Amino acid sequence: MWLSNLGIMWRIELLVAVSLLAILAFAWVTGRRAIKDSIQQTLDHQLTIAALLARSLDERLDTMLTVLETTAAHPDLSSERLPSLPQPGERSEDGPTALLRDAQLQMSSYGRRLSWLDTDGNVIWTEPSDPTLLSRPFPNFAAIRPLLQGHSRYVSSVCQSANLSQPYVVLATTVLRPTGEIGSLLVEEIGADQLGAAEGLEAVVSGASFQFEVIDHEGVILVSSLPGIPFQMDGHADQFTQLIDNREARVSQCQQCHSGDGQDALARAEGVLAFAPLSVAPWGVAVRRPASQVMASASYMRRQMLLGGGVVMAAVLLATWWLVSRRIVGPIRALDEASEQLAAGNPSVAVPRGGVVEIARLANNLERMRVRLECMLEERRCWNEPLEETVDERTDELVILNERLQRKEVTCKQLLAKVLTAQEDERARLARELHDSVGQSLTAIIMTATVVENSLPPQFASGKEKLVHVRQVAAQTLQELRDLIFDLRPEVLDDLGLALALRSQVNKYLEPAGVDVQLRAGGLRDELPAEVETAVFRVVQEAIANIAHHAKASQASISLTRQDNKLIVRVQDNGMGFDADHARNEPRQGWGLLGMEERITLLGGRFHIGSEPGKGTLLLAEVPLDDK
Questions:
Q1: pLDDT tens by residue, 223-239
Q2: Measured CA distances, 122 to 6, 136, 189 (Å)
Q3: What is the pLDDT of residue 517?
Q4: According to the model, what pLDDT value does residue 262 have?
Q5: d(Cα 272, Cα 217) in Å, to the nearest integer?
Q6: Which residues of 56-88 are buried (b: 16+ CB within 10 A; e: fewer)?
Q7: Rounded to whole angstroms, how far apart are CA atoms 225 and 222?
Q8: Is the CB of residue 344 less than 8 Å from the CB of residue 367?
């Protein structure tokens, strides 16, 4: 892992950096929460401004509606029959006209004209008086028709009249008869630009770049702080209509109303929009402010956090690097160099002091250890000098003894080789003597007995039988003599080679015993040295004899393989097996195994025999062959 390859200085720096990052991350999360709270407070302040403006408009509208309702409740207007009215141009100081004049005077700050209508929408009277409007249908009567469906007061959306140069809105209330039925209507026309919203905004905030709008239920802008905007359809008409219907106030960033590309909200926002509905009229107040002003404090806090965190982290890392390099890493490197000198066996170099308390304590301990080690080495040198002299003397004696032992071992091997050679020579000589003397004598006996047998007349039948018996005994003896001569020195080994000699041993001993034998001799096309053939033949001959006489096996395999200038001999059977270690140590049983091992060892090879009771026997021999 790469971390394990870092030095202590970089590990400490990495640990400090990770710790600082964790602290800065915590501070960043906390700061972001504070920034978020600050943004939310700013948005709430924006919404409060919109709510204050909406409340101001509600109070104005409620005041005018209250004047209309008070006037409509007067008996002069709510009688069963319409009272007599003055002719156009006449002035009356009492009756309905005085009531209407007083009501219009109270609403003159915002209202343009007060109209008294019958239930069909025809104008009964206007204040100020306008004869051209009397007994005619009221313009945009459809805007106040909901009053006839049981409403006591009503505020319309924007209306347009041919007699007025600008659009207007109407406030209306019903005039009830004593029977409770609607007898007539009182309608006040108000210019949309005379609601007093601008003065209300200046009363709430001063010096801030706010943009406000008053929007009706249809999404039409009634009042705007920007010129040329009133009486146009707002781009958020559907959202404003829904908020007005639900009586819901909301504040949001402007891009949330549009499709975005997922970039940072503070960077993309063009403005913050707050909307508050009115409770008296189906209108709402929208207050907009540039996002650069609304989010200025949040952006400043974010920049300060990033800059301050980076400066603090860099300063702490530099201070840590200086402290670690001067007080920790430097002394540790000096201790490391001193420990290398000690490890190299040079305790004469003093251990430097310094560093923090723990490192200074370690340096003191290492210095004491160095001094004690130097003293111990000096004492050991004093003791080692006579010991080394004694060791050198004993080493020289051991070298001499080892040379003598090696010479004796070589002599023993030479003697053993001569013994085995003499043994083979003696076997060959005995085979020749038996063949030339005893074998010829037996052959002569057989031939003489045959001649005598054939020369006797028929009356010597008993003598012929005895001669036949003598001839048969001599023939059997001659065959046994030939077997003995073959065992002493098989002629086939000299004439046809090792493989056929082993085949003859298999045919002679194993096949009559009922053992299924597989004999393989691979890579033996070239002639082997005579001493190798003789030794391998005697080893395998002994193994075959053991299988035939002791193993009680049903299967056996014999393989001779030549590879990499070596002859590999492998003999294996599935017989009853034996304890190989015990057999080697048993004088009566171990001679055959020792003889096989000695023959292979004399050739410079390796010999192994493995066996366990009930698990068969495996013989392995490896004999080196000289390159020709």
A1: 777 766 666 777 677 78
A2: 96, 5, 15
A3: 92
A4: 36
A5: 21
A6: bbbebbbebbebbeebbebeebeeeeeeebeee
A7: 11
A8: no
